[in-house]
Write a structure and sequence with these properties.
By secondary structure, this protein is mostly beta strands. About 10% of the residues lie in helices and about 50% in strands. The strands form 7 sheets. A 4-stranded antiparallel beta sheet has the order 1-27-26-25. It has a 4-stranded antiparallel beta sheet with strand order 2-3-4-5, with no helix packed on it. Strands 6-7-8-9 form a 4-stranded antiparallel beta sheet, with no helix packed on it. The longest helix has 25 residues, at about 5-30. About 25% of the residues are buried.
Length: about 350
Amino acid sequence: MHINRKEKTKMGLRVLTVSCILLVLHVSYGFSKMVTFPKLLKVENLKVKCDRIFVVEGTSISIYSLEDYKLIKKFGRMGDGPREFKINPPDYALRIDALPEYILVNSINKVSYFTLDGEFIKEKRASIAYFFQPLGENFVGESFVQDEGVIYRAFHLYNPDFKRIKEIYRQKHIFQGGKGIIIGKEVPKCQVVKDLIFVSGKEGLVIDVYDKSGRLLHTFEQPYEKRKMTAKDEKAIHDLLKREYKEVYERLKSMIKIAPNFPVIGNFLFDNQYVYVSTNKEQDGKTEFFMFDDKGKFLEKIFIPIAKKDPLRPYPFDFYKGKLYQFIDNEDTDEWELHITDIPKK
């Protein structure tokens, strides 16, 4: 095929541009690698653990080898059977916790156990809460509690039969019946790691750490100035809600209240002894992260390139063995790409 000089020039510029981008990534964050997954349609959740990549699409879970990115197993569909799951999109997506011995899949009204290669082990029914996380023989679960007309989002300890043992934390829910919904307020989050319970939700950059009995041990905390909500941000929020809840948005939009500031903590993720706490601030297209060790000692603040599917929500990402893994939907090729970036440590 003949390529004229003009086409050669364009190709050369594209190559030069890509090379410059890769050079910048290499200088700032180590070598960045990209792997295409043409069979994936809509990645909703991602977990990288135990040298495997666990990908959630609706009620389907795909397990890939981290060594060669080949599919190990794909399983799951909508239903009530042993290898089936129920969800309620867009509010509820399957959640995966990967442990050295098994993976735990949370769906509506049950938790399901599978081997790391996706073979079914057992399931347990649970209708009183959601997002159960194993804590030894017990669990930590989320639920909604109503007390004197106020709705709270709460985290409780549960025994192996999902009976409540103890409340760990509660916070007023962003939605109160008849009083509207507040967007931008801190939303509590909970993660169980190595028999410890990590909970965020208080004002500021604060994460409380509890032992397996629910006793407060210590707190991660750093001074922080919140990012203010602009008119552009408010429009983006309404556009998102209109798109996700198009059937009820017009009826409920008068009840939507926008907070004056963004919540401080976007999420917090673990990688061995490191804790990465993302905020809602950005710099040069990169997201701000505070790094702590697992004892709560602040290490450093860094900015990491996190791609977003809209102005408010990032594409699914996870940290594993000093690398950032993020699935990104390439709208030009209509394929999902896994971007892998080295994270520097001081």
